[in-house]
3-keto-5-aminohexanoate cleavage protein (Limobrevibacterium gyesilva), 308 residues
Amino acid sequence: MSKVIISCAVTGAIHTPSMSDYLPITPEQIAESSIAAAEAGAAIIHLHARNPQTGEPTPDPAVFMQFLPRIKQSSDAVVNITTGGGLGMTVDERLAGPIKASPEMCSLNMGSMNFNISRAADRVKTWKFDWEKPYLERTDDYIFRNTFRDIARVVEVMGKGHGTRFEFECYDIGHLYNLAYMLDQKVVEPPLFVQSIFGILGGIGADQQNLMFMRETANRLFGDQYVWSVLAAGRNQMAFTTMAGIMGGNVRVGLEDSLYIAKGKLAKSNADQVAKIRRILEDLSLEIATPAEAREILKLKGGDRVGF
């Protein structure tokens, strides 16, 4: 069993400022939270950008460049920048930050899907900003677009153009088959870093049987050509990442995926979640991968070849 790569998704584009005072919003907060997560044991830092004044997700490369250099200067962690962006962004907008930064890794969603997070609005009593409630509520009529042409374009622009490799985000079984098709067509090349995602309404549910099925399906489709990782939304985060570690997989935590550290208790930082899953994995006699080891496992280009 190889060492476990811990990824940390620091802020995302799902949760809004009114949901937690601990959600990093400004470039300074995102940088500090990323560095602390790396110090706690995260080999990969997955990043979105937000408007510093309102906390709304933004594709603006200038905002990314306010925190990316600081993370690089203070940490050896692999920087992984979203190409999913935020709700309603075009593919051009979603690519703007990655093109500017030329990172070692980008996320890449492997299929279009209903992406319904409208119920999250029901749990917020007081809103800090006017954009938050409608942003969430309109997702009951939202399709997250990731066509085969979109996927091929991201690979062409970032993979072939920048030497960037991908975290292939698979929200359902069909997304694994989409990735297998892309592999067969030689659009993508191994090793594939396959992130199985559970618990988003519109994707596969957070059931233990589904975790097993995703693993078995990926094994059939990719054999020894992939590296498996797991994340789960909300209350399922720690349970599913623990099971992934036991099953020989890698894990992703972070405030993008869950705002909590335990039942009813908000996480005060991304580092808290990283430290918790690290402690669990080490108690299971599993070793944690360093950034250098993650680069070797995933065949990354190296931190000296990024654009920040």
Q: What stands out?
A: The longest strand covers residues 192-198. The chain has one domain: 6-305.
